Amino acid sequence: MFGFFARAAVGAWAVSVLRPVKAVAQKVAQSPVARSAREAIQKAFVTAQTPTGYDVHAHHWAMAIDVERCIGCGLCAEACKGENHVLKEPFYFRTWIERYIIRKPDPRSFELRGETLVDSPNGGIGGFPPSPVRKENILRTFFVPKLCNQCEHSPCIQACPVGATFDSPDGAVLIDKEYCIGCGFCVQACPYGCRFLNPVTKTAEKCTLCYHRITHGLRPACVEVCPTGARIFGDLKDGNEKNPVRVFIENNKVQVLKPHLGTEPRVYYAGLDKEVR
After folding, report:
1. Quick check: 176 and 154 in contact, CB under 8 A?
2. How far is CA 274 from CA 42, 74, 226, 257, 258, in A?
3. What does pLDDT average to in each consecutive run of 10 residues of the chain (277 residues)?
């Protein structure tokens, strides 16, 4: 749902400024110089942001989320803001929680489920207020953590005219703020609403799986603070039989968000309902 706010923030400016730039940006992105620069950026950025000896080809990071375990406490969103210095203002989140409330259907209808309400006040930080739907009218309610899906075929990478957004060999989609020009194309291209333009730095921002932590052997902040273990993180190239993310994926019927788009997300969900968008 935060895709709506992110796009709205960019929309007015995009209409007046980005359209004239778009044609030029596309030509620049297709040039041999741009392609060479993009390759150089990827190598330099991955090397600069990781500790000595870290091999980006030796890992394949992935996150899994057990919807049934999420209690909507919001600790993950709060920890993410603190760890990654995300702006405290509303609607700026690298990760957030959505609450889904499914009403009981009208008994006179042939429907199995009623209307679905979705909300996410302050990204879920501080928990959720009482349901606006009376308990006796609720069929089911649950929480769904959202974040960048770290897509293998990322629309944001394709949309970036300067190569500032790129796919690291270890499975993380990253942004080089030194090269980002703040055009907002990636924000518009992301089908999951996971990106926003930082009004202070004027650059794109999103979840990076806490890249500064995982490359040093630590877990993402959101995973670290989750009290119920709803977020599972690990390295798919780790052959240890106790590897948490591999065990979870192998023992659950996992899905990805919007599979019809062909983006091949590397964030896996168990327990998703069809109402989740």
Report:
1. no
2. 37, 23, 25, 10, 10
3. 42 36 41 46 48 90 97 97 92 96 90 93 96 95 97 96 95 96 97 96 97 95 97 95 93 96 97 88
Could you tell me which residues are beta bridge partners of residue 146? 96
Of 216, 248, 213, 247, give the one whose Cα is nearest residue 230.
248
pTM for the predicted model, two decimal places: 0.81
CA atoms within 13 A on the CB side of 106: 4
CB 206 within 8 A of CB 196: yes
The rounded Cα 127 to chain-centroid distance in angstroms is: 20
Comparing CA positions, the residue from 74, 59, 86, 78 lying closest to residue 214 is: 59
Largest alpha-carbon pair distance within the chain?
Answer: 66
Q: Give 34-40 contacts, CB < 8 A, sequence gap 24+.
A: 34/161, 34/162, 34/163, 37/162, 37/163, 38/162, 38/163, 38/166
Cα 11 from Cα 196, distance rounded (Å): 12
Which position has the token pair 């209409």? 15
Residue type, 237: K
* Cα-based angle 62, 74, 140 (whole degrees, multiple of 5): 90
CA–CA dist 241, 246 (Å, integer)? 8
CB 174 within 8 A of CB 157: no
204 closest CA partner among 173, 249, 170, 245 = 173
Distance CA 29, CA 24 (A): 9
Q: How many CB atoms lie within 10 A of CB 22?
A: 14
Q: Is 202 left (phi over 0), alpha (psi -120 to 50) or beta?
A: left
Integer Cα distance of 4 and 9 in angstroms: 9
198/191 Cα distance (integer angstroms): 19
